[in-house]
Amino acid sequence: MDSTAPEPGSRASSHSQEIVHWQPSALEQSRRKIRSEQNRKNILIATASSVLVLGTLLTILVTSPGFESLSDTFFAWAYGVEILPKVILGFTTNIMLTIIAGTCVSIFGLILALTRTSRSPALTPFRILATIYVDVFRGVPMLLIILLVGFGIPALRLPGFTKNVLILGTTAVVITYSAYVAEVLRSGILTVHPSQRAAARSLGLSNFQTLRHVVLPQALRRVTPPLLNDLVALIKDTGLVSILGVTDAVRAAQISTSRSFNYTPYVMAAILFLMVTVPLTRFTDRTMRRAIERQNAQGLA
Amino acid sequence: MSTPVLEVSGLRKSFGKDVVLQEISFKVPVHTATVFIGSSGSGKSTLLRCINLLDGIDDGVINLDGEEISDPRIDADKVRRKLGMVFQSFNLFPHMSVIDNITLSPIRVQGVSKDEARSKAEELLSRFDLLEKADQFPDRLSGGQQQRVAIIRSLALKPRLLLLDEVTSALDPVLVNEVLSTVRDLKHEGMTMVIATHEMGFAKQVADEVCFLHQGRIVEFGPPNEVLENPSDARTKDFLKRVHEAGRL
What we know:
The structure holds two protein chains of two kinds.
Chain A: H1 8-21, H2 26-63, H3 67-74, H4 77-117, H5 124-139, H6 142-156, H7 165-191, H8 194-202, H9 207-237, H10 249-260, H11 264-300
Helix pairs in contact in A: 4-5, 4-7, 4-9, 4-10, 4-11, 5-7, 6-7, 7-9, 8-9, 9-11, 10-11
Chain B: E1 6-15, E2 18-28, E3 33-37, H1 44-51, E4 59-64, E5 67-68, H2 76-81, E6 83-86, H3 98-108, H4 114-127, H5 143-155, E7 161-165, H6 173-188, E8 193-196, H7 200-206, E9 209-214, E10 217-222, H8 224-229, H9 234-245
Helix pairs in contact in B: 3-4, 3-5, 5-6
Protein backbone atom coordinates (compact mmCIF):
# COMPACT_ATOMS: atom_id res chain seq x y z
CA MET A 1 0.00 0.00 0.00
CA ASP A 2 1.13 3.51 -0.74
CA SER A 3 2.19 4.94 2.61
CA THR A 4 2.04 8.56 1.46
CA ALA A 5 -1.46 8.31 0.06
CA PRO A 6 -2.70 11.82 -0.70
CA GLU A 7 -6.17 12.95 0.24
CA PRO A 8 -8.92 12.16 -2.24
CA GLY A 9 -9.30 15.83 -3.13
CA SER A 10 -5.69 16.42 -4.20
CA ARG A 11 -5.67 13.19 -6.13
CA ALA A 12 -8.36 14.25 -8.57
CA SER A 13 -6.21 16.66 -10.61
CA SER A 14 -3.41 14.18 -11.35
CA HIS A 15 -6.03 11.58 -12.16
CA SER A 16 -7.72 13.65 -14.85
CA GLN A 17 -4.33 14.26 -16.50
CA GLU A 18 -3.81 10.52 -16.80
CA ILE A 19 -7.12 10.19 -18.61
CA VAL A 20 -5.99 12.59 -21.34
CA HIS A 21 -3.05 10.35 -22.32
CA TRP A 22 -4.84 7.07 -21.80
CA GLN A 23 -5.69 4.94 -24.84
CA PRO A 24 -8.01 1.95 -24.54
CA SER A 25 -6.21 -1.37 -24.94
CA ALA A 26 -6.91 -3.72 -27.87
CA LEU A 27 -8.90 -5.93 -25.50
CA GLU A 28 -11.05 -3.01 -24.35
CA GLN A 29 -11.60 -1.91 -27.97
CA SER A 30 -12.85 -5.36 -28.93
CA ARG A 31 -15.10 -5.36 -25.84
CA ARG A 32 -16.58 -2.05 -26.86
CA LYS A 33 -17.39 -3.43 -30.28
CA ILE A 34 -19.23 -6.35 -28.64
CA ARG A 35 -21.07 -4.02 -26.29
CA SER A 36 -22.30 -1.74 -29.07
CA GLU A 37 -23.44 -4.79 -31.05
CA GLN A 38 -25.37 -6.04 -28.03
CA ASN A 39 -26.85 -2.60 -27.61
CA ARG A 40 -28.02 -2.46 -31.23
CA LYS A 41 -29.61 -5.87 -30.88
CA ASN A 42 -31.48 -4.77 -27.72
CA ILE A 43 -32.90 -1.70 -29.45
CA LEU A 44 -34.03 -3.84 -32.37
CA ILE A 45 -35.82 -6.30 -30.06
CA ALA A 46 -37.51 -3.50 -28.10
CA THR A 47 -38.77 -1.83 -31.27
CA ALA A 48 -40.07 -5.05 -32.80
CA SER A 49 -41.92 -6.10 -29.64
CA SER A 50 -43.44 -2.62 -29.19
CA VAL A 51 -44.73 -2.49 -32.77
CA LEU A 52 -46.15 -6.00 -32.46
CA VAL A 53 -47.98 -5.47 -29.13
CA LEU A 54 -49.24 -1.93 -29.68
CA GLY A 55 -50.15 -2.68 -33.32
CA THR A 56 -52.20 -5.71 -32.27
CA LEU A 57 -54.08 -3.72 -29.62
CA LEU A 58 -54.82 -0.91 -32.06
CA THR A 59 -56.01 -3.36 -34.72
CA ILE A 60 -58.37 -5.07 -32.27
CA LEU A 61 -59.77 -1.67 -31.27
CA VAL A 62 -60.26 -0.28 -34.77
CA THR A 63 -61.69 -3.48 -36.30
CA SER A 64 -64.14 -4.05 -33.43
CA PRO A 65 -67.79 -3.95 -34.64
CA GLY A 66 -68.82 -1.01 -32.43
CA PHE A 67 -65.77 1.16 -33.16
CA GLU A 68 -67.54 3.49 -35.57
CA SER A 69 -70.37 4.42 -33.18
CA LEU A 70 -67.89 4.68 -30.28
CA SER A 71 -65.74 6.98 -32.34
CA ASP A 72 -68.80 9.12 -33.11
CA THR A 73 -69.92 9.51 -29.46
CA PHE A 74 -66.49 9.81 -27.82
CA PHE A 75 -64.19 11.28 -30.44
CA ALA A 76 -66.28 13.84 -32.31
CA TRP A 77 -63.35 16.22 -32.59
CA ALA A 78 -65.19 19.06 -34.30
CA TYR A 79 -67.73 19.13 -31.47
CA GLY A 80 -64.93 18.72 -28.97
CA VAL A 81 -63.18 21.83 -30.23
CA GLU A 82 -66.49 23.71 -30.15
CA ILE A 83 -67.10 23.11 -26.43
CA LEU A 84 -63.39 23.21 -25.51
CA PRO A 85 -63.47 26.84 -24.25
CA LYS A 86 -66.18 25.95 -21.72
CA VAL A 87 -64.22 22.96 -20.46
CA ILE A 88 -61.02 25.01 -20.29
CA LEU A 89 -62.85 27.67 -18.30
CA GLY A 90 -63.99 24.93 -15.93
CA PHE A 91 -60.46 23.57 -15.79
CA THR A 92 -59.11 26.90 -14.51
CA THR A 93 -61.31 26.25 -11.46
CA ASN A 94 -59.51 22.92 -10.95
CA ILE A 95 -56.13 24.62 -11.21
CA MET A 96 -57.14 27.39 -8.83
CA LEU A 97 -58.55 24.84 -6.42
CA THR A 98 -55.32 22.85 -6.60
CA ILE A 99 -53.20 25.90 -5.82
CA ILE A 100 -55.35 27.08 -2.90
CA ALA A 101 -55.98 23.61 -1.48
CA GLY A 102 -52.31 22.65 -2.01
CA THR A 103 -51.14 25.66 -0.02
CA CYS A 104 -53.60 25.01 2.83
CA VAL A 105 -52.76 21.30 2.85
CA SER A 106 -49.00 22.03 3.12
CA ILE A 107 -49.53 24.25 6.15
CA PHE A 108 -52.15 22.14 7.90
CA GLY A 109 -50.40 18.85 7.08
CA LEU A 110 -47.12 20.17 8.46
CA ILE A 111 -48.81 21.30 11.68
CA LEU A 112 -50.40 17.85 12.05
CA ALA A 113 -47.09 16.07 11.38
CA LEU A 114 -45.18 18.26 13.84
CA THR A 115 -47.84 17.75 16.49
CA ARG A 116 -47.76 14.00 16.05
CA THR A 117 -43.96 13.81 16.26
CA SER A 118 -43.53 16.26 19.16
CA ARG A 119 -42.65 14.94 22.59
CA SER A 120 -43.62 17.96 24.63
CA PRO A 121 -45.95 17.02 27.51
CA ALA A 122 -47.97 20.21 27.03
CA LEU A 123 -48.94 19.05 23.54
CA THR A 124 -50.26 15.64 24.65
CA PRO A 125 -53.97 16.42 24.03
CA PHE A 126 -53.14 17.84 20.59
CA ARG A 127 -51.05 14.77 19.82
CA ILE A 128 -54.03 12.55 20.60
CA LEU A 129 -56.39 14.74 18.56
CA ALA A 130 -53.99 14.78 15.60
CA THR A 131 -53.72 10.99 15.70
CA ILE A 132 -57.49 10.57 15.74
CA TYR A 133 -57.85 13.13 12.95
CA VAL A 134 -55.40 11.31 10.69
CA ASP A 135 -56.93 7.92 11.43
CA VAL A 136 -60.43 9.12 10.62
CA PHE A 137 -59.83 11.18 7.50
CA ARG A 138 -57.37 8.76 5.96
CA GLY A 139 -59.91 5.99 6.39
CA VAL A 140 -62.99 7.63 4.86
CA PRO A 141 -63.54 7.97 1.08
CA MET A 142 -62.99 11.56 0.03
CA LEU A 143 -66.29 11.58 -1.85
CA LEU A 144 -68.10 11.08 1.47
CA ILE A 145 -66.22 13.94 3.10
CA ILE A 146 -67.09 16.21 0.18
CA LEU A 147 -70.78 15.28 0.49
CA LEU A 148 -70.80 15.63 4.27
CA VAL A 149 -69.09 19.02 4.25
CA GLY A 150 -70.82 20.32 1.11
CA PHE A 151 -74.37 19.41 2.12
CA GLY A 152 -73.96 18.97 5.89
CA ILE A 153 -72.54 22.34 6.88
CA PRO A 154 -75.18 24.43 5.00
CA ALA A 155 -77.88 22.17 6.50
CA LEU A 156 -76.79 23.21 10.00
CA ARG A 157 -77.94 26.75 9.10
CA LEU A 158 -75.31 28.20 11.37
CA PRO A 159 -75.07 31.96 11.00
CA GLY A 160 -71.80 33.13 9.48
CA PHE A 161 -71.06 29.82 7.74
CA THR A 162 -70.70 29.97 4.01
CA LYS A 163 -72.99 28.23 1.54
CA ASN A 164 -70.52 28.73 -1.29
CA VAL A 165 -70.00 25.25 -2.73
CA LEU A 166 -66.57 26.18 -4.05
CA ILE A 167 -65.32 27.07 -0.56
CA LEU A 168 -67.03 24.06 1.02
CA GLY A 169 -65.64 21.74 -1.64
CA THR A 170 -62.12 23.11 -1.18
CA THR A 171 -62.46 22.69 2.58
CA ALA A 172 -63.39 19.04 2.15
CA VAL A 173 -60.38 18.44 -0.10
CA VAL A 174 -58.07 20.18 2.39
CA ILE A 175 -59.46 18.13 5.29
CA THR A 176 -58.75 14.84 3.54
CA TYR A 177 -55.43 15.65 1.91
CA SER A 178 -53.98 17.16 5.09
CA ALA A 179 -54.29 13.74 6.67
CA TYR A 180 -52.42 12.09 3.76
CA VAL A 181 -49.69 14.72 3.63
CA ALA A 182 -49.28 14.73 7.42
CA GLU A 183 -48.45 11.02 7.32
CA VAL A 184 -45.94 11.45 4.50
CA LEU A 185 -44.22 14.30 6.37
CA ARG A 186 -44.26 12.36 9.62
CA SER A 187 -42.57 9.36 8.03
CA GLY A 188 -39.92 11.74 6.65
CA ILE A 189 -39.30 13.27 10.07
CA LEU A 190 -38.98 9.83 11.64
CA THR A 191 -36.36 8.68 9.12
CA VAL A 192 -33.88 11.39 10.17
CA HIS A 193 -31.44 9.53 12.40
CA PRO A 194 -31.51 10.43 16.12
CA SER A 195 -27.76 11.13 15.98
CA GLN A 196 -28.52 14.20 13.86
CA ARG A 197 -30.77 15.49 16.62
CA ALA A 198 -28.11 14.70 19.25
CA ALA A 199 -25.48 16.59 17.24
CA ALA A 200 -27.73 19.62 16.88
CA ARG A 201 -28.72 19.64 20.55
CA SER A 202 -25.10 19.28 21.63
CA LEU A 203 -24.36 22.46 19.63
CA GLY A 204 -26.79 24.27 21.91
CA LEU A 205 -29.67 24.45 19.42
CA SER A 206 -33.10 24.37 21.04
CA ASN A 207 -35.65 21.69 20.21
CA PHE A 208 -37.42 24.01 17.78
CA GLN A 209 -34.19 25.19 16.14
CA THR A 210 -33.12 21.57 15.71
CA LEU A 211 -36.40 20.81 13.99
CA ARG A 212 -36.29 23.92 11.81
CA HIS A 213 -32.66 23.78 10.66
CA VAL A 214 -31.61 20.13 10.92
CA VAL A 215 -34.53 17.69 10.95
CA LEU A 216 -37.13 19.26 8.63
CA PRO A 217 -34.80 20.15 5.74
CA GLN A 218 -33.57 16.56 5.60
CA ALA A 219 -37.06 15.12 6.06
CA LEU A 220 -38.57 17.26 3.28
CA ARG A 221 -35.82 16.31 0.87
CA ARG A 222 -36.55 12.65 1.45
CA VAL A 223 -40.31 12.89 1.00
CA THR A 224 -40.37 15.21 -2.02
CA PRO A 225 -41.22 12.37 -4.47
CA PRO A 226 -44.24 11.05 -2.48
CA LEU A 227 -45.39 14.65 -1.91
CA LEU A 228 -45.31 15.30 -5.66
CA ASN A 229 -47.29 12.09 -6.06
CA ASP A 230 -49.93 13.48 -3.73
CA LEU A 231 -49.98 16.71 -5.73
CA VAL A 232 -50.80 14.78 -8.92
CA ALA A 233 -53.58 12.96 -7.06
CA LEU A 234 -54.84 16.28 -5.68
CA ILE A 235 -55.19 17.79 -9.17
CA LYS A 236 -57.32 14.84 -10.27
CA ASP A 237 -59.38 14.76 -7.11
CA THR A 238 -60.37 18.41 -7.40
CA GLY A 239 -62.70 17.04 -10.11
CA LEU A 240 -64.75 15.40 -7.36
CA VAL A 241 -66.09 18.73 -6.09
CA SER A 242 -68.20 18.84 -9.27
CA ILE A 243 -70.79 16.74 -7.40
CA LEU A 244 -71.52 19.81 -5.26
CA GLY A 245 -72.32 21.75 -8.42
CA VAL A 246 -68.99 23.57 -8.75
CA THR A 247 -68.49 24.34 -12.43
CA ASP A 248 -65.08 22.74 -12.88
CA ALA A 249 -63.87 20.89 -15.98
CA VAL A 250 -65.80 17.73 -15.12
CA ARG A 251 -69.04 19.63 -14.46
CA ALA A 252 -68.62 21.79 -17.58
CA ALA A 253 -68.15 18.64 -19.65
CA GLN A 254 -71.18 17.06 -18.00
CA ILE A 255 -73.35 20.05 -18.87
CA SER A 256 -72.33 19.91 -22.55
CA THR A 257 -72.83 16.15 -22.64
CA SER A 258 -76.30 16.32 -21.17
CA ARG A 259 -77.31 18.72 -23.93
CA SER A 260 -75.86 16.84 -26.91
CA PHE A 261 -75.75 13.22 -25.65
CA ASN A 262 -72.23 13.13 -27.00
CA TYR A 263 -69.42 12.09 -24.65
CA THR A 264 -66.59 13.94 -26.37
CA PRO A 265 -66.57 16.72 -23.69
CA TYR A 266 -65.53 14.10 -21.10
CA VAL A 267 -62.64 13.05 -23.32
CA MET A 268 -61.63 16.70 -23.72
CA ALA A 269 -61.66 17.16 -19.95
CA ALA A 270 -59.57 14.01 -19.55
CA ILE A 271 -57.03 15.34 -22.06
CA LEU A 272 -56.80 18.62 -20.14
CA PHE A 273 -56.10 16.75 -16.89
CA LEU A 274 -53.49 14.60 -18.63
CA MET A 275 -51.74 17.66 -20.04
CA VAL A 276 -50.98 18.77 -16.50
CA THR A 277 -50.57 15.46 -14.67
CA VAL A 278 -48.34 13.64 -17.18
CA PRO A 279 -45.51 16.22 -17.15
CA LEU A 280 -45.79 16.38 -13.37
CA THR A 281 -45.61 12.59 -13.11
CA ARG A 282 -42.51 12.53 -15.34
CA PHE A 283 -40.98 15.22 -13.13
CA THR A 284 -41.82 13.19 -10.02
CA ASP A 285 -40.17 10.11 -11.50
CA ARG A 286 -37.03 12.07 -12.25
CA THR A 287 -36.95 13.56 -8.75
CA MET A 288 -37.38 10.11 -7.25
CA ARG A 289 -34.58 8.65 -9.38
CA ARG A 290 -32.27 11.48 -8.32
CA ALA A 291 -33.16 10.99 -4.67
CA ILE A 292 -32.32 7.30 -4.94
CA GLU A 293 -29.04 8.04 -6.72
CA ARG A 294 -28.16 10.55 -4.03
CA GLN A 295 -28.93 8.06 -1.30
CA ASN A 296 -26.81 5.39 -2.95
CA ALA A 297 -23.91 7.79 -3.35
CA GLN A 298 -24.09 8.54 0.34
CA GLY A 299 -24.12 4.84 1.10
CA LEU A 300 -20.77 4.45 -0.64
CA ALA A 301 -19.12 7.36 1.16
CA MET B 1 -6.54 25.24 43.71
CA SER B 2 -9.13 26.81 41.45
CA THR B 3 -12.49 25.18 40.73
CA PRO B 4 -12.14 22.35 38.22
CA VAL B 5 -13.97 22.84 34.92
CA LEU B 6 -15.79 19.56 35.41
CA GLU B 7 -16.43 17.70 38.61
CA VAL B 8 -18.43 14.50 38.64
CA SER B 9 -19.23 12.71 41.87
CA GLY B 10 -21.20 9.55 42.59
CA LEU B 11 -22.76 9.44 39.11
CA ARG B 12 -25.06 6.52 38.44
CA LYS B 13 -26.88 5.74 35.24
CA SER B 14 -29.06 2.80 34.31
CA PHE B 15 -31.22 1.85 31.37
CA GLY B 16 -34.08 -0.03 32.98
CA LYS B 17 -32.51 -2.78 35.07
CA ASP B 18 -29.16 -2.40 33.34
CA VAL B 19 -26.78 -0.34 35.45
CA VAL B 20 -24.33 1.19 32.95
CA LEU B 21 -22.46 3.57 35.24
CA GLN B 22 -22.03 3.64 39.00
CA GLU B 23 -19.96 5.49 41.60
CA ILE B 24 -18.30 7.55 38.91
CA SER B 25 -16.28 10.39 40.43
CA PHE B 26 -13.52 12.47 38.83
CA LYS B 27 -12.33 16.03 38.31
CA VAL B 28 -11.07 17.74 35.20
CA PRO B 29 -8.99 20.85 36.04
CA VAL B 30 -8.70 23.60 33.44
CA HIS B 31 -6.32 22.98 30.48
CA THR B 32 -6.13 19.26 31.20
CA ALA B 33 -7.37 16.19 29.38
CA THR B 34 -8.95 13.21 31.08
CA VAL B 35 -8.98 10.09 28.94
CA PHE B 36 -11.37 7.20 29.48
CA ILE B 37 -10.30 3.78 28.26
CA GLY B 38 -12.10 0.46 28.47
CA SER B 39 -13.68 -2.15 26.28
CA SER B 40 -16.77 -1.46 24.20
CA GLY B 41 -19.86 -1.37 26.39
CA SER B 42 -17.97 -0.26 29.47
CA GLY B 43 -19.99 2.96 29.54
CA LYS B 44 -17.60 5.52 28.02
CA SER B 45 -20.06 6.95 25.50
CA THR B 46 -22.91 6.98 28.00
CA LEU B 47 -20.75 8.95 30.44
CA LEU B 48 -20.06 11.63 27.82
CA ARG B 49 -23.74 11.77 26.86
CA CYS B 50 -24.64 12.23 30.54
CA ILE B 51 -22.16 15.08 30.94
CA ASN B 52 -23.68 16.73 27.85
CA LEU B 53 -27.19 16.22 29.32
CA LEU B 54 -28.22 14.16 26.29
CA ASP B 55 -29.04 11.37 28.76
CA GLY B 56 -30.47 11.92 32.23
CA ILE B 57 -28.65 10.46 35.24
CA ASP B 58 -30.06 8.37 38.10
CA ASP B 59 -27.90 9.68 40.91
CA GLY B 60 -24.87 11.82 41.66
CA VAL B 61 -23.79 15.35 40.83
CA ILE B 62 -22.19 16.94 37.76
CA ASN B 63 -20.66 20.37 38.27
CA LEU B 64 -19.54 22.58 35.40
CA ASP B 65 -17.39 25.51 36.56
CA GLY B 66 -18.78 24.98 40.04
CA GLU B 67 -22.41 25.13 38.90
CA GLU B 68 -24.52 22.02 39.30
CA ILE B 69 -25.79 21.06 35.86
CA SER B 70 -27.43 17.82 37.00
CA ASP B 71 -30.19 19.90 38.60
CA PRO B 72 -33.37 19.12 36.64
CA ARG B 73 -34.38 22.81 36.70
CA ILE B 74 -31.30 23.82 34.71
CA ASP B 75 -31.68 25.05 31.11
CA ALA B 76 -29.97 22.23 29.20
CA ASP B 77 -29.61 24.31 26.02
CA LYS B 78 -27.58 26.92 27.91
CA VAL B 79 -25.32 24.27 29.43
CA ARG B 80 -24.67 22.64 26.06
CA ARG B 81 -23.47 25.95 24.65
CA LYS B 82 -20.53 25.70 27.05
CA LEU B 83 -19.78 22.13 26.00
CA GLY B 84 -18.51 20.90 22.66
CA MET B 85 -19.16 17.32 21.68
CA VAL B 86 -17.72 15.27 18.83
CA PHE B 87 -19.24 11.91 17.96
CA GLN B 88 -17.84 8.63 16.69
CA SER B 89 -20.03 8.86 13.58
CA PHE B 90 -19.19 12.57 12.85
CA ASN B 91 -22.87 13.52 12.57
CA LEU B 92 -22.28 16.40 10.21
CA PHE B 93 -25.50 17.79 8.76
CA PRO B 94 -25.58 16.29 5.23
CA HIS B 95 -27.81 19.01 3.77
CA MET B 96 -25.42 21.81 4.68
CA SER B 97 -22.02 22.82 3.33
CA VAL B 98 -19.00 22.64 5.62
CA ILE B 99 -19.17 26.36 6.37
CA ASP B 100 -22.91 26.20 7.14
CA ASN B 101 -22.35 23.25 9.45
CA ILE B 102 -19.84 25.31 11.41
CA THR B 103 -21.72 28.62 11.46
CA LEU B 104 -25.21 27.24 12.21
CA SER B 105 -24.84 27.33 15.96
CA PRO B 106 -22.97 30.68 16.27
CA ILE B 107 -25.61 32.35 14.08
CA ARG B 108 -28.72 30.72 15.57
CA VAL B 109 -27.65 30.25 19.18
CA GLN B 110 -25.26 33.10 19.86
CA GLY B 111 -26.81 35.56 17.44
CA VAL B 112 -23.49 36.32 15.73
CA SER B 113 -23.87 38.05 12.34
CA LYS B 114 -23.51 35.87 9.25
CA ASP B 115 -20.37 37.65 8.02
CA GLU B 116 -18.66 37.49 11.38
CA ALA B 117 -19.54 33.81 11.86
CA ARG B 118 -18.24 33.03 8.38
CA SER B 119 -14.95 34.82 8.82
CA LYS B 120 -14.38 33.12 12.16
CA ALA B 121 -15.21 29.74 10.67
CA GLU B 122 -12.83 30.38 7.78
CA GLU B 123 -10.12 31.26 10.28
CA LEU B 124 -10.65 27.93 12.04
CA LEU B 125 -10.77 26.02 8.74
CA SER B 126 -7.52 27.52 7.52
CA ARG B 127 -5.86 26.74 10.84
CA PHE B 128 -6.69 23.07 10.26
CA ASP B 129 -5.90 23.14 6.51
CA LEU B 130 -9.51 22.70 5.44
CA LEU B 131 -10.29 26.13 4.01
CA GLU B 132 -10.61 24.81 0.43
CA LYS B 133 -13.42 22.51 1.61
CA ALA B 134 -15.50 25.38 3.03
CA ASP B 135 -18.26 25.23 0.41
CA GLN B 136 -18.25 21.48 -0.14
CA PHE B 137 -20.89 19.14 1.23
CA PRO B 138 -19.94 16.50 3.81
CA ASP B 139 -20.40 13.57 1.40
CA ARG B 140 -17.53 14.92 -0.75
CA LEU B 141 -15.09 14.73 2.17
CA SER B 142 -13.00 11.83 3.44
CA GLY B 143 -13.85 10.41 6.86
CA GLY B 144 -10.86 12.14 8.44
CA GLN B 145 -11.83 15.47 6.93
CA GLN B 146 -15.43 15.03 8.07
CA GLN B 147 -14.33 14.34 11.61
CA ARG B 148 -12.00 17.36 11.63
CA VAL B 149 -14.88 19.53 10.41
CA ALA B 150 -17.00 18.09 13.24
CA ILE B 151 -14.28 19.08 15.70
CA ILE B 152 -14.11 22.59 14.23
CA ARG B 153 -17.91 22.81 14.40
CA SER B 154 -17.82 22.03 18.10
CA LEU B 155 -15.07 24.65 18.61
CA ALA B 156 -17.04 27.43 16.94
CA LEU B 157 -18.97 28.11 20.14
CA LYS B 158 -15.70 28.45 22.11
CA PRO B 159 -16.63 25.70 24.57
CA ARG B 160 -15.27 25.52 28.11
CA LEU B 161 -14.98 21.76 27.76
CA LEU B 162 -14.70 19.46 24.77
CA LEU B 163 -16.14 15.94 24.88
CA LEU B 164 -14.66 13.54 22.32
CA ASP B 165 -16.46 10.23 21.93
CA GLU B 166 -14.22 7.68 20.17
CA VAL B 167 -13.60 10.19 17.41
CA THR B 168 -11.32 7.85 15.43
CA SER B 169 -13.26 4.59 15.71
CA ALA B 170 -14.95 4.98 12.34
CA LEU B 171 -11.74 5.80 10.47
CA ASP B 172 -9.10 3.75 8.70
CA PRO B 173 -5.57 3.82 10.19
CA VAL B 174 -4.23 6.44 7.75
CA LEU B 175 -7.02 8.89 8.56
CA VAL B 176 -6.84 8.28 12.32
CA ASN B 177 -3.57 10.20 12.44
CA GLU B 178 -4.83 13.44 10.94
CA VAL B 179 -7.67 13.55 13.45
CA LEU B 180 -5.46 12.72 16.41
CA SER B 181 -2.94 15.39 15.50
CA THR B 182 -5.81 17.90 15.44
CA VAL B 183 -6.75 16.87 18.97
CA ARG B 184 -3.10 17.12 20.06
CA ASP B 185 -2.99 20.68 18.68
CA LEU B 186 -6.06 21.57 20.73
CA LYS B 187 -4.42 20.13 23.84
CA HIS B 188 -1.36 22.32 23.26
CA GLU B 189 -3.63 25.34 22.99
CA GLY B 190 -4.95 24.57 26.44
CA MET B 191 -8.38 23.13 25.61
CA THR B 192 -9.92 21.24 28.52
CA MET B 193 -11.12 17.84 27.33
CA VAL B 194 -12.78 14.58 28.28
CA ILE B 195 -11.90 11.88 25.78
CA ALA B 196 -13.14 8.34 25.25
CA THR B 197 -10.77 6.38 23.04
CA HIS B 198 -9.36 3.00 22.01
CA GLU B 199 -6.05 4.53 20.86
CA MET B 200 -3.68 3.79 23.74
CA GLY B 201 -0.67 5.51 22.15
CA PHE B 202 -2.72 8.65 21.71
CA ALA B 203 -4.03 8.39 25.30
CA LYS B 204 -0.45 8.29 26.52
CA GLN B 205 0.49 11.44 24.60
CA VAL B 206 -2.49 13.61 25.34
CA ALA B 207 -3.83 12.55 28.76
CA ASP B 208 -3.11 14.22 32.07
CA GLU B 209 -5.17 11.54 33.71
CA VAL B 210 -6.32 8.17 32.44
CA CYS B 211 -9.37 6.41 33.87
CA PHE B 212 -9.98 2.75 33.12
CA LEU B 213 -13.69 2.03 33.00
CA HIS B 214 -14.84 -1.53 33.56
CA GLN B 215 -18.48 -2.59 33.71
CA GLY B 216 -19.58 0.91 34.55
CA ARG B 217 -17.03 1.64 37.28
CA ILE B 218 -13.72 3.46 37.31
CA VAL B 219 -11.43 0.65 38.49
CA GLU B 220 -8.17 2.50 38.09
CA PHE B 221 -7.10 6.08 37.43
CA GLY B 222 -3.94 8.10 37.47
CA PRO B 223 -1.24 9.60 35.25
CA PRO B 224 -0.99 7.83 31.87
CA ASN B 225 2.42 6.27 32.43
CA GLU B 226 1.19 4.67 35.63
CA VAL B 227 -2.13 3.33 34.40
CA LEU B 228 -0.96 2.35 30.93
CA GLU B 229 2.59 1.16 31.70
CA ASN B 230 2.29 -0.15 35.20
CA PRO B 231 -1.32 -0.89 36.08
CA SER B 232 -2.04 -2.17 39.56
CA ASP B 233 -5.51 -3.61 39.00
CA ALA B 234 -5.77 -7.08 37.48
CA ARG B 235 -8.67 -6.02 35.21
CA THR B 236 -6.66 -3.11 33.79
CA LYS B 237 -3.72 -5.44 33.19
CA ASP B 238 -5.97 -7.91 31.41
CA PHE B 239 -7.54 -5.19 29.24
CA LEU B 240 -4.19 -3.71 28.25
CA LYS B 241 -2.81 -7.16 27.50
CA ARG B 242 -5.69 -7.80 25.12
CA VAL B 243 -5.26 -4.40 23.49
CA HIS B 244 -1.57 -5.16 23.07
CA GLU B 245 -2.32 -8.52 21.48
CA ALA B 246 -4.62 -6.78 19.05
CA GLY B 247 -1.66 -4.61 18.04
CA ARG B 248 -3.14 -1.30 19.09
CA LEU B 249 -0.51 -0.23 21.66
